[in-house]
């Protein structure tokens, strides 16, 4: 049963979200006596909470040092929820293919899906998209302060490695490039990170295991990269993957993005694949023999979802999810608005390897319908069999959690393609989802204003500006000379790819990697 | 003679402006050992200083509390310069129509033109242009913290009153309106302020007098309001002005903007005219009998320049520039990129009244050529005489200081109309101007990066992002509930128009005002 308490109320009336108070028992907070501006309306919306709600969205550096009422409530929720996650984490990670957990929606699964979705969202919030920044295409924060810089002070994770890819591949509309000539790298883009849950005792107890999390960046608004895809499946074995079966195929564009490198570039002289595999190997070796169990969770939105599926498959195919003691580490991919990645054999091979994939999608999003819009797993069986050998028969992997933005009373019903693809909106939809046909009720009260960070999706009467996430003065600051500058940002030791040659040679099939 | 020292160097090479060090004697500051990012280039540009430079541009709240090297140099310059301004302020204010002060350019005049230009620029920096803000069209800061909020800590002025105009006039493209329904005012826009120089002893000594400054806001980018002008001159006397001569005429759109009111609106129930006149009257009465002399200086850019001319004229025509003791207070308008305002009789009447106008223009800007592009003061004498009675014969007032953006090696040569009209660019051009045919040399080293605050005017190789002035997260902040909101901003007591009925009735010609 979905745990919707009977007192739940969702009344997204035409009032500013700022007047939404989260304590149903205290609907009428006293108005500030200092502020007498006439547009301050009285509270008119109560957002109820169910148990097992998500962590609070703490994603902005501006919130440094503020312990909010939301923080306190979140801690309370987490305390209640932690026991369940500790006991059920293997099921939450998909041990039983999430049977019985999605309809009605399990509150712990919902909470975890939002948490991993926020780890994917962090890739957007941290990415420098500004073509007029000389750091365009890089991560705006140093690795060690990654979560803190985003205002996520209690993530419970430490970033172990940043991931880069070379932009010298055939997805010109995916990569961000600076308009300036002097830039941090001409050929690399930051693509995400590998993080590992830290030693904090409370967090370990909550998770129930040590977690290695991999997050891949996708695209927020521009979907042109879909058109760039060659719509061509090629055998993964030709790209250095361990798989000996040439009928296991994946989209060539994703494979290129994952495996290409640029030996002249400090950041992408190793492929994204080499970067992630060596780091997973290192972390599994380091933590695999601990008393705690271990899990590997890969997350990504959009094109990042495709990389999540590819890399989850790759880790398992390489056997990196086995500890020296022989324990098998479960590998799970949570993807959000992800496209199809490979063919039916690719899907079958992932199932053989026990890699679990849960795909969260908005039913109105076209990206999960790509590539293979016309020939995919939904085609009649006979046709699929016939087309199985053809290069363009794509197939989704794993389980789907289908959401519908038209069920949320907060969101505009009719929006453009990139808006329907928005990740923050998916997290909002998750928060309100309780099962098929169930009424939309926010579980955690996760701030709906976050939806508009990089979209124009909230209904106008909530009065949240569209695309409001932006840096003060585009990151320009005054230096000690009194001049406005783009500050030097990146410390080389945090960003340059460490030399991983020695790690690559230690992989089980080094010849396929090098 | 222009005071360009022989060691002056201006080498705007293709390097980031941030590497420009301002001490020619210390061109090679040690690089930070923390920052090893490879794009940090060595200093390659030295900007020399001449005496009599402008105050430093301190226009951003982010600079709170930072005393920069620029601050120290500025204080040194100001100390040297203050003696001259104290002795010559009447000439700087136009007593002799700036004869001999513009070619070669007098450094004190240059500095004062930049200073008053920055007071006009403050109207843009403080204005809420965002249609998705419920405060769109208002001033973002409270009156008492106006300059501080802009990072201008040593302005030496206190804002005495905010000025508003009703948007219910026929200049639809001039006014900013919120897209939301709940807004601070449906019918008013903030238009500027009246400030008065404060009691700080050093500042008083520097200025040589008490100054009442009036700054009017114009438009930064959108020039559509020019097309809205009816291109129709009407007698000022019909609009409540004291002038008994019906042949003294001004552009009807400017007159409407200046004199219209909306009795249903708290902010514009008195016209901009009534607001400014009553405040000037109050301040002249308060300070007119001090030992110090008094001056009235009106400043404005673009349409704000037109309001500056109109209100300077009006103050003098109303006789508000006479103290109770009978002293005449000089009235000066410094305008930047201002259009023509009235006809030849209007110009003559201003001259009779002794109002001084100095117009700073970029030769490539079309606004100062409007209205009256075809029939103006440059037409042959006979034609002018013939057309004098026609409604569309416009005439500029006062002296012109013509600058040319193509003389600055920092600026793009070919730009669109609104860029050529940019106020920050004019201030930059002032800083480099030394007289007709003189080489462009920055006098104060005023940060060229400021030019791109709201334009794309700097050459690309300086690597300053275009339009970089923006608020963090469009002003959204997290409240104590952890939610992202547009904070309530305006305290009514600072913004609502005070009741000035009693002041209006005290004016010399109350029947014409009420």
TrEMBL record, chains A, B:
An annotated Gene Ontology molecular function: phospholipase A1 activity
Family: Belongs to the AB hydrolase superfamily. Lipase family.
Gene3D superfamilies: alpha/beta hydrolase
Domain Fungal lipase-type: 214-373
Official protein name in the record: Fungal lipase-type domain-containing protein
Predominant location category: plastid
Species annotation: Microthlaspi erraticum
Keywords: Chloroplast, Hydrolase, Lipid degradation, Lipid metabolism, Plastid, Transit peptide
Localization per record: Plastid, Chloroplast
